Amino acid sequence: MDPAIITLCVLAVAAFLFVTELIPLAVTAMAACTVLGILGVLPAKQVYAGLSNSTVVLFGGMFVIGAAMFRTGLAEAIGVAVVKKAGTSEIRLMTAIMLVTIAMSSVSSNTGTVACLMPVVIGICQAAKVPASKELMPLAIAANVGGTITMIGTPPNVIVTGALATAGLPTFGFFEFAYIGIPLSVIILVWMLTIGRRMLPAHNAGEMDEEAVQAAKEEAGASDDKAPKSKTKMWISGLIMVGVVVCMALELPTVPLQTAAVTGAILCVITGCLKEKEAYAGIDWVTIFLFAGMLSVATAMEKTGAGKLIADTVVGMMGANPSPYLLTAVLFLISNVLTQFMSNTAAAALLAPIGISIAQSIGCDPKPVLMALGIAASMAFATPMATPPNTLVLGPGNFTFNDYVKVGVPLCLISWVACVIIIPIFWPFH
Up-side HSE of residue 160: CA atoms within 13 Å toward CB? Predict the structure, then answer.
């Protein structure tokens, strides 16, 4: 059988398993590249080459640094201090919650941020007699959009960067995502404080799934709430994060992104901000293996021509010489719809190599197309299962599925229009 057809068959099965999650996402990704190796589509040296990719190393290092911020209590202390100073006014409280969540989610776990802030937000809402749902939905929304500001803010950003690197194309810089991430954050913040606020349901706090919240905190690296916190270690973890981000921003030739991240992770352990085992536990291994596995699948798609087959089919359906604006708009919608019902990491991993192939087939620079795909995968507001932050606030906010649709669909459409307009300004198609 033609290697391209074999690759497409493996990709189709992987897509089905990603959507249904019949088996874990990471297992699906690693199984896909393994099968391609067994069937001879990929040479043995390339089957697990994704695990040594520099982007994987970067993500692993940043996971550890983020875990240190949660483990020392720094992330929670910053969030709680800002939210408590906002007072009891509904609009002021929403502004503070969204701003601090956007800032924290840009450099650390958005799930951990929501898990740490949610109990505080509920407590303030009860004291101020403000319906908890009015603040919890904006909390989840801010966590999702905040991740779009930096490369490590959310897995889809890393996925599209890695896909470009694998294809031998110029990649995105650490803060390059801010060109679209900051405008989106501002637009969504303003929308929620004005029109969006009126769409929020008025529900009092419901039952909070303590186990889910604790699990989310532990996944992000947060320590036991009752354990005493060291202010010295808080400062150290904060300084390490700032130092790493500054190094990444300066783009020093001898200190590439992954080196800065690993150096920061090492310092976190050496300084005692977290123990070695805690550092390992702070790494999201599902994302690491899913990303690494799908990088190898992307390699197979490129080398066998499977990506070109998909690209030719899609372009053929869009007519002769399709506009890159139309292409970007369509791929944004596909990515955004998929991510409402499946992992945004998986959605980005599936679509990134296809997006590159389609862009190249019409003579368009893949960077704006990949940026649209990555951002779309993070703009998951319309269903409770779209992202962990959405799921975490479901019970405490007493939300229904329709609540997410009512608030989330306009946000998705706003994001779509904003991206189609803003992205080509910073990343021209030609």
Answer: 33
Closest CA to 244 of 262, 272, 258, 264: 264
User: Which residue carries 């088996």 as its tokens?
Assistant: 23
pLDDT at 248 over 70: yes
Percent of the chain at pLDDT above 90?
28
pLDDT digits (tens, 9 = 90+) for 12-47: 898 888 878 888 888 998 999 999 999 999 898 889
What is the pTM assigned to this prediction? 0.82
- pLDDT tens, position by position, 51-65: 888 878 888 888 898
Q: d(Cα 331, Cα 329) in Å, to the nearest integer?
A: 6
